[in-house]
Amino acid sequence: MGFLPPDLINVHVLMLCTAKNGTFNCVKSPNPNRLQSKIINEMLIDSLLIVLAYLLGSVSGALIVMQLMGLPDPRSQGSGNPGATNMLRSSGKKAALITLCLDVFKGVIAVLVAKFLASGAVALAAVTLAVFLGHLYPIFFQFRGGKGVATAFGALSVLAWPVSLTALATWLLMAFLSRYSSLASLTAALFTPAYMFWFTGVWEYTLMSLIMSGFLIWRHRSNIRSLLTGKENKIGQKA
């Protein structure tokens, strides 16, 4: 390190200089105040994105469809789950399809916005988990939500599309072989963390997918009991 020549002194910008062969090479060093301000701004934006993702996830597609189409409350029908599968059993294909699209869409929107504004992988993983948890435990509906499969698929489609496509292929294969939506969802959930690690190698995403899979399995615990006792309804079967 060398001294800064008088003609290069700038009281507003910190400089790091090295002397070599009688000449000075100087580069700007980070301004501590600006760096601190940048970190605070990023933290505020990330926090806001996480909160908004949770609130968006709390908007129930099934209950919106129920209101618009004058259908019975899916929480009082069939399995009691406000999701596309239960809507299919209780209210038909059209209601189920719209519900599915709405639940996928909110996952897509939350992570897509975060991809442009979040500070990095940790924030993106947190937003993905937040929109998923919002669907499971919606603040607008007494924390009684769905099981999160469609919202997780939408969020992962933006975060790491090869993971979501591989998980979808797993779901479709198991659904075709077994005709059980719950078994297909459980199988896809079990394999998703491995898919995430394989395709991305990002530990933040892998940890997030492990947590997500744990919640998915927990939310399907009644289905697991029904599968074990042979009482689980198959796809399209009336509850």
Structural features, described:
There is one protein chain. 66% of the residues lie in helices and 5% in strands. The protein is mainly alpha-helical. It folds into 2 domains: 1-30, no CATH class; 31-227, no CATH class. Strands 1-2 form a two-stranded antiparallel sheet. A hairpin with a 2-residue loop joins strand 1 and strand 2. The radius of gyration is 24 Å and the shape is globular.
Count the E strands. Answer: 2
User: In order across it, which strands form the biggest sheet?
Assistant: 1-2
Q: How would you describe the shape? A: globular
Count of discrete domains = 2
Biggest sheet descriptor: 2 strands, antiparallel
Order of helices and strands: EEHHHHHHHHHH
Mean pLDDT score = 84
Helical stretch tally: 10
Q: How large a portion of the residues is in β-strands, by DSSP E?
A: 5-15%
Radius of gyration: 24 Å
Quote the distance from N terminus to C terminus. Answer: 77 Å
Helicity range: 55-70%
Structural class: mainly alpha
* Assembly state: single chain
Low-confidence runs of at least 5 consecutive residues: 1-13
Summarize the structure in short.
Helix 3 packs antiparallel against helix 4 (93-117), helix 5 runs parallel beside helix 9 and helix 7 (161-178) packs antiparallel against helix 8 (181-199). With 239 residues, the chain is mainly alpha-helical. Residues 1-13 have low confidence and may be disordered.
